Amino acid sequence: MTDVTSPPPKRRWRPSLTWLGLLPFALFILLFLVMPTMKIVLGAFQRADGSFTFENIAGLFTPSILSSYWISIKISVASSAFGCLIGFLMAAGMVLGGLPRGIRSPLMTFSGVASNFAGVPLAFAFLATLGPLGLVTVFLRTEFGINLRAMGFNILSFWGLTITYLFFQIPLMILIITPALDGLKREWREAASCLGASGPQYWRIVALPILFPTILGTFALLFANAFGAVATAIALTGSSLNIVPIMLFAQIRGDVLGNPHLGYAMAFGMILVTGLANVIYIMLRIRSERWLK
Amino acid sequence: MTKAASWAILLLGLTYFILPLVGMVEFSLSMRRGEYSFDAYAAVLADPQFRETFSYSVVMALLTIVFGILLVVPTAFWVRLKLPRLRPLVEFVTLLPLVIPAIVTVFGYIRLYNTSSWLPLTGSIFGTNLLLMFGYAMLSLPYMYRAVDTGLRTIDVATLTEAAQSLGAGWVTIIVKLILPNVLVAVLSGSFVTFAIVMGEFTMAALLNRPAFGPYLQLMGANKAYEPFALATIAFIITWACMGLIQLVTRFTKHDKAGR
């Protein structure tokens, strides 16, 4: 008789006990990810006394902050666009270009390392190469008489930062796009050429439309990646280039904007931008998986 | 794409990647005028601050790894065994640290756990260290969770657990003696990534004012000529070694599995 009556209460009890297993994880996420983020988001809409306001958000639209967002966005777009393009070409050369197969494994390993080699050391590597006394700068000047500085190139600038960011952007693109290129089926190419398509036609009509969601999604991911990069930028430029992460860093260190809650708004803006980029990435990722499975 | 074009783009790309590394190493070796020497490295190694910050970061990395394993392995195991429906949600949550920039999270920490708050972690050195460790664990969560979860996929968690339970094992025994050894490789590769992340991390340590390797690196960069490049080379070797170890560990197990 207990056979009939006991299972239902047991089933009703089980969920509450199974949840307990996730408690440490949930607590950790709540304390060190959700609550700090919520604090920032709420703080963006509060005055110092805690009352609700849009002043901080409006404060973002002052010329200095707006221009820092604009420079940040430009650098992120440029470094992700070139990152996608160069990464795609390198991966395509590796997968479809008839390069020896032995190249693949070392290149993928190197991509894994290089995509993780961001931060302060990366900035130094580029200073040593393209800085005023860097390897390439000096080489070009002494051997060819090309003075990069006189030509307007400066490592502590928009292009300097973009070129430096490419060091982790290109490998990330290679890591993500290679499996997608592997997923292009040989039959599609054969079918296209049976129907009389030329190489460029195959790429334009078949391959690129299939790869497009992956490429665009990766672009969004690289964008978010560059937008949030702090250490490289600070080590490279000090505070000479006013991009968002550097301004926020200075604001947290010591209230440089004169209004502590403006810092919340800047951080909120960063979450908004990277969050949006990631949503685009996830949506396009889901779309691309339809073809490439 | 033709073969020649492929070679051209590959070589151009490789040049771009190799030049900065060559430049960095070359600069780090040229402290002595006119000849290459390890003077910069000697200067770095002799600096007590280097030893302090480096060992601080190593200890923090190891603590973060231990904490990460304690947090992630039981969670991933539990989700697979009991709450498979929540898997997408948990996976999504573990990826959030990639979405929210570290500088934003640490800003939240500073405002949330300051000396006048309900949990004044930043009020004491121990508390700040603890907070920094949690922050590091957060940064490495996407990599750690993914590694462990992939590791769990290769074993039959439910059957193994049932077998262990019918032999009278408790949850702790199951996780420590059964699950952990089976996902050891995954845990190791997650640990190496964590180590690399913590050793190079700058933003959190700098904003929480802790004497870690990353802020020291930046400070040296602002004040010294050759030493920073020796330090950067050391940092690169650490990253490279960690990634190399992951490759080694994974290859090792593939061999193991094939032999069975």
UniProtKB/TrEMBL annotation, chain A:
UniProt keyword list: Cell membrane, Membrane, Transmembrane, Transmembrane helix, Transport
Domain ABC transmembrane type-1: 69-283
Cellular component aspect of the GO annotation: plasma membrane
Localization terms from the record: Cell membrane
Bilayer topology: Multi-pass membrane protein
Coiled-coil stretches noted in the UniProt entry, renumbered to this chain: none
InterPro entries referenced in this protein's UniProt entry, alphabetically: MetI-like, MetI-like_sf
TM regions (residue ranges): 16-35, 75-97, 117-140, 152-181, 201-223, 230-250, 262-284
SUPFAM superfamilies according to UniProt: MetI-like (SSF161098)
Database matches in Gene3D superfamilies: MetI-like
Domain of life: Bacteria
Keyword Cell membrane: yes
Tagged with keyword Acetylation: no
One GO-annotated biological process of the protein: transmembrane transport
Main location per the UniProt record: membrane
Protein family (similarity comment): Belongs to the binding-protein-dependent transport system permease family. CysTW subfamily.
Protein's recorded name: Acriflavin resistance protein
Record organism: Alloyangia pacifica
UniProtKB/TrEMBL annotation, chain B:
Primary localisation category: membrane
Superkingdom field: Bacteria
CDD domains, alphabetized: TM_PBP2
Topology of this chain in the membrane: Multi-pass membrane protein
Signal peptide as annotated in the record: none
Family annotation (Pfam families): BPD_transp_1
InterPro entries, sorted: MetI-like, MetI-like_sf
TM helices/strands, residue ranges: 7-29, 54-77, 89-112, 118-139, 183-208, 228-250
One of the record's GO cellular component terms: plasma membrane
GO biological process: one example: transmembrane transport
Gene3D superfamilies xrefs: MetI-like
Cell location: Cell inner membrane; Cell membrane
Record bears the keyword Ion transport: no
The entry's keywords: Cell inner membrane, Cell membrane, Membrane, Transmembrane, Transmembrane helix, Transport
Domain ABC transmembrane type-1 intervals: 54-250
PANTHER family: INNER MEMBRANE ABC TRANSPORTER PERMEASE PROTEIN YDCV
Similarity annotation: Belongs to the binding-protein-dependent transport system permease family.
Protein name in the entry: Spermidine/putrescine ABC transporter permease
Organism, scientific name: Alloyangia pacifica
Higher taxonomy: Bacteria, Pseudomonadati, Pseudomonadota, Alphaproteobacteria, Rhodobacterales
